[in-house]
Specification:
This protein is an all-beta fold and 338 residues long. 46% of the residues are buried. It has one helix and 28 strands. The mean pLDDT is 92. The longest helix is centred in the last third of the chain and has 4 residues, at 254-257.
């Protein structure tokens, strides 16, 4: 299959300690407060880096916090407004201020060590509440069919609302849109081959969790327009774009649009409003990938990227016409050659 070749131009590079070791963590990359972030954990320290707005710099700033529970392997970290940090651990959620002090701690039932389940957290788009997934408390006369999603006051940690999820002992990941919207994205993983996707919103003191798309089709990459998002089959067989008011998603089958033997991989996302950047590999978790620019309207490939140096890992599109690639702890920022 023939594609036009487009050259990638390096605009900036910088280091983020621990990023290579954080490969595969669900909190490694996130969208919060209309910006892209990278998160790493090195021994007893958590480091958060906000991606700069312009192409000539990688990071606007980096900041470190001591890990609330250094022994925890699966703690999930999220930036919060004001330069703080929220950490969802096995049996507590901790919110820290920018100066490193602990603002509050919310204790909850511990995730079972026998299962792979663990929680996640994010501020809601208002910046006033923290949404989190936690293991259900089992009490006499009160049983739950699944884990819980809770809303906590971000200033005090006071519980405000909760709802039962249709998933149990699962792995969770929150993302926001780069565009302001009332809902956040929640991807649920149960085992290696099962996934669900939900839109979560706190409205009038009630938590609303709505399933979108079909099972085994998690959210992927970034979203730069309200309610306009990408989902990808777990096996990478297809990529789908969901649009407001559409009866059905726009779908690109890997076997129809990619070279033979390749499937979609990594976190395909919006390069800008008109283009999507997607990796393709022999399997969706492959580290050796080729990078393609797709038409955002049709999902048909427009070009394949050519780099001036070897680049194998899937890219992270930033929504502003640039993207990141990672090599161990080095982060490079790119744009298409002008």
């Amino acid at each position: 299959m023939e594609y036009a070749a487009v050259s990638a131009e390096l605009t900036a590079s910088d280091d983020l300690p621990g990023l290579g070791a954080s490969q595969g963590r669900l909190d490694r990359w996130s969208v919060r407060e209309g910006a892209n972030w990278l998160v790493t954990q090195v021994e007893a320290a958590i480091r958060v880096a906000r991606i700069a707005d312009g192409p000539d710099t990688v990071f606007a700033w980096q900041r470190s916090w001591p890990a609330p529970d250094p022994e925890e392997e699966h703690a999930y970290c999220s930036p919060v407004p004001g330069g703080g940090l929220a950490v969802s651990g096995r049996h507590r959620i901790t919110v820290c201020d920018a100066d490193g002090g602990v603002r509050w701690v919310y204790e909850h039932a511990a995730w079972s060590e026998r299962n792979m389940g663990y929680g996640a957290c994010t501020p809601d788009p208002s910046g006033s509440h923290l949404l989190a997934t936690i293991a259900a408390t089992v009490e006499p006369g009160r049983t739950y069919p699944g884990d819980l999603c809770v809303a906590l006051d971000l200033a005090t940690g006071k519980p405000l609302a909760e709802t039962v999820l249709p998933s149990s002992s699962a792995m969770y990941e929150f993302q926001q849109s780069l565009a302001p919207q009332a809902e956040v994205f929640l991807t649920v993983g149960q085992g290696q081959d099962d996934a669900h996707s939900f839109l979560v919103a706190l409205q009038k003191g009630m938590l609303h969790v709505t399933g979108v798309g079909i099972p085994d089709e998690p959210f992927t990459g970034n979203s730069i327009a309200a309610d306009d998002f990408l989902k990808m089959a777990i096996a990478g067989d297809y990529l789908a774009r969901y649009r407001p008011g559409s009866q059905a998603p726009v779908t690109a089958e890997a076997e129809a649009v990619l070279p033979d033997g390749l499937v979609f991989a990594g976190l395909p996302g919006f390069l800008d409003h008109h283009r999507i950047l997607a990796a393709a590999a022999e399997d969706p978790w492959g580290e050796e990938s080729r990078h393609f620019i797709l038409d955002a309207r049709t999902l048909r490939p427009l070009a394949e990227l050519r780099y001036p140096m070897p680049v194998d890992l899937p890219p992270l599109p930033l929504g502003d016409g640039t993207w990141l690639t990672v090599a161990k702890d080095q982060v490079s920022r790119w744009q298409t050659e002008k």
